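Saturday, quiet lab. Running sequence design on the structure tokens for the scaffold JK sent over.
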């Protein structure tokens, strides 16, 4: 058996700096919507909402917005500050696509966040129903990848 030796490197090689702008990686979360989504919240929940949306669900805090907002891959989730009790005219949950329901379920258990696993009417339509710190209903579903 013969030993394998590495070929020496080329001392004349000069790396070229790539000056093209970097394209950021897409965020691992999507809103199921046709435009930016608005949800109500009361003042004082900013840190709890950051912990929920940025650290748990992997949104990105939108610092360019004048109001509390989070960016997903496709749209923004904006929060309207409401004084006093929040009056809701519907109880529809905001659907959010995440990469893995199993991983999210483990994180929710670790963080001691109450949730309910729901099975959809059609096959493969399972999800996790929970409330964010502002009391808004959130339905987490797994992203479907096209192979």
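Result came back. Writing it out in full:
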């Amino acid at each position: 058996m013969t030993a394998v030796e590495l070929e020496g490197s080329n001392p004349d090689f000069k790396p070229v700096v790539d000056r093209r702008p970097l394209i950021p990686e897409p965020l691992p979360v999507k809103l199921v919507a046709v435009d930016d989504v608005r949800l109500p919240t009361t003042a004082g929940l900013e840190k709890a909402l950051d912990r929920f949306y940025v650290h748990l669900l992997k949104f990105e805090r939108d610092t360019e917005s004048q109001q509390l907002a989070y960016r997903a891959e496709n749209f923004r989730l904006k929060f309207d500050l409401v004084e006093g009790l929040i009056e809701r005219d519907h109880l529809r949950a905001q659907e959010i696509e995440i990469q893995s329901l199993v991983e999210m379920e483990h994180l929710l258990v670790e963080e001691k966040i109450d949730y309910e696993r729901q099975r959809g009417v059609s096959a493969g339509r399972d999800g996790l129903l929970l409330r964010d710190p502002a009391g808004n209903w959130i339905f987490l579903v797994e992203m479907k990848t096209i192979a």
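Notes for JK: The CA atoms of residues 11 and 23 lie 32 Å apart. The chain has one domain: 30-84+91-142. Ask whether to fix the surface positions before the next round.
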